[in-house]
Amino acid sequence: MGEGEWVPAQRRDHGEVSTLLAALGRIWVRGADVDWAVLLPGAMPEDVPTYAFQHERYWLTATAADATTIGLLTSEHPLLLGESSMADTGAAVFTGTVSLRTHPWLADHVIGGRPILPGTALLDLALHAGHRVDLPDVEELTLHAPLPLGDRLVALQVTVGPAHDDRRRPIAVHSRPGGPDANLTTLDWTCHATGVLTRSAAAPAAMDLTDWPPRDAIAVTVDYERLISHGYGYGPAFRGLRQVWRRDKEIFAEVALPVDAGTFGLHPALLDAALHAAIVSAAVEDSPAVTRLPFSWNGVHLAAVGAGALRVRLSLDSEDAMAIVVADDTGGPVLTARSLVSRTVAIASSEPDTSDALFHTNWQPLPFGTPEGILWPQLSEVEGDAPAVIRLDVPRPELAVSEAVRMVTGEILTAVQAFLADDRFETSRLVVVTRNAHAPGTAADVVSAAVWGLLRSAQTENPGRLLLVDLDEDPRSAAVLTAAVRAAVVAGEDQLILRAGEASVPRLQRVDRSGLLDVPGGVWRLGVGEVGVLEGLVLEGVEVV
Question: Are 249 and 222 within one domain?
């Protein structure tokens, strides 16, 4: 203790015992000897930190990358952190998270002014899951809904069905809002893709791309600014297209990955850039408000992983479908896809974030050419080679409604199943014609409406095979049926209504929520297809009009 330093053992308005102990402690830490055993009989000495902020943690520290701490196997995929299997069924589950904070390169994939997870990433998730369950090929993968991205964490879940078949298992990709505030009572899962995994007996034959660049092909200018006018806002990570050539219905491209390849099987940005070749080389300009997005992958085989540069061949089967062959920069096989079907979506590039908005169906006019009087043959009349378009009229029996619905839906279901199962009709489109299935302001025909409900489900399982057409009683509609159907087939539509000789096709339109919802005790005007929320609204005391 320093010379001349005083330590008070008593202080006014302080307890005598506590003041004395504090004084002894003070002179002890300054080097004086204090016999604590005499002062505090039975007390045991205890080591103290050597400096003021030294401490030891006793809580377990779990990181997202260490899935084993929560009972999962660690996944090597950049978007999937853990994997497991269900004890009772053997189904496989892969989990992970994604956001623009955790994967900032995804901010460069912008469609209609909004970052979304590319369809190539959903394919890569399926290929990874297939590899882990020893079914490495994607027989089919249909994309149902885009996955918008932001700074908030999104939870991913990839599920592979039970192993009842050693060569085929179903797969699904879902997401929900993540973060610490999520819990089991508020999970709101969205299905983004469903499909089937398989294991081919042998890898599909790939076109030889070692002879490069392709002979007799015409160079096409790569212009990403043109894509912006079509609603594609590709940033640096997705601008991997280097050169493009076209030869008849074949498109060739060179692609290089602007970012690190990571541990993806085939980096989504690299494969997505390969698909840009079909857009920049399109012979016919689409409307600037129309965007084409992947809809269905078929027969996909991944032969090699980790490629950073590609040679690509796209074979156009139609405006909406193409076969894909991908090789590395030496011509070695990387990936083949028997078919990729795309769909056009109307997206305004200036549209704000609408992830929490309400939507309803808005029927938009479909222009068509000069009416033609020749109708396509009925399904029951087709013999021999099948035409490109076949007609099936829905009957209108004079029966009680319940009996008519049962009889007609049964007949239509049998006819459609036979059409889809017949190899002769593999490239044909079946046009199912109803009357007054949609009748705004009047009573719809219940039988026709039931047929639409039935076949809308069939359309999701068989894209591009069925076209639903609804007529009114106006003779002008029947007169232009052939011309309107031809326009709908060319445009890739799957629904068409004719009213007073005018054709319309459905589009989703955002609902202006102002003044429509005020709960409890408010009013929500519901349109067709929105009645699923009626029960919950009535329980909250909402007036439904």
Answer: yes
H-only helix segments in 12-133: 16-29, 36-39, 119-132
Number of domains making up the chain: 5
* Domain assignment of residue 67, yes or no: no
Residue range 470-524, pLDDT digits in tens: 999 899 999 899 889 988 888 888 999 999 999 999 887 765 544 444 433 334 4
* pLDDT score recorded for residue 542: 40
Largest CA distance in the chain: 119
Residues 6+ apart with CB under 8 A from 191: 144, 145, 172, 173, 174
Give the Cα separation of 299 and 429 in Å (integer).
22
Tens-place pLDDT, residues 145-186: 889 998 888 999 999 998 777 788 999 999 988 765 566 555
- The side-by-side arrangement of strands in the sheet containing 359-365 is 359-365, 502-510, 495-499, 466-471, 429-435, 389-393
pLDDT digits (tens, 9 = 90+) for 324-355: 999 998 888 999 999 999 887 654 433 444 44
Backbone φ, ψ for residue 83 (5° rounding): -145, 155
Domain of residue 321, CATH code: 3.10.129.110
Could you tell me which of 202, 228, 205, 268 has the C-alpha nearest to residue 112? 228
- State the Cα angle at 305 between 78 and 207, rounded to 5°: 140
What is the C-alpha to C-alpha distance for residues 225 and 233, in angstroms, rounded to an integer?
9
| Parent domain of 262 | 218-346
Does 367 lie in the same domain as 328? no
Structure tokens at 114: 């909004």
**Before 148, cis peptide (omega within 30)?**
no
Do 291 and 225 fall within a single domain? yes
CA 322 to chain centroid, in Å, comes to 20
| Domain presence at residue 354 | no
Same domain, 149 and 229: no
Query: How far is the C-alpha of 346 from the C-alpha of 358, rounded, in Å?
Result: 17
Q: Are residues 370 and 460 in the same domain?
A: yes
Total length of the chain? 545
Asked whether residue 213 is domain-assigned, the answer is no
Nearest CA-CA partner of 230 in 281, 146, 286: 286
Output the CA angle 538-539-541, nearest 5 degrees. 65
Q: What is the pLDDT of residues 98-120, one digit of tens each?
A: 999 889 999 999 887 789 999 99
Distance in angstroms (rounded) separating the CA atoms of residues 12 and 21:
15
Q: What is the pTM of this model?
A: 0.55
Burial 466-476 (b: 16+ CB within 10 A, else e): bbbbbbbeeee
* Token pair for 22: 């504090």
What pLDDT digit, counting tens, does each position of 187-198 carry? Answer: 678 899 999 999
Q: Containing H/E element for 455?
A: helix 446-461
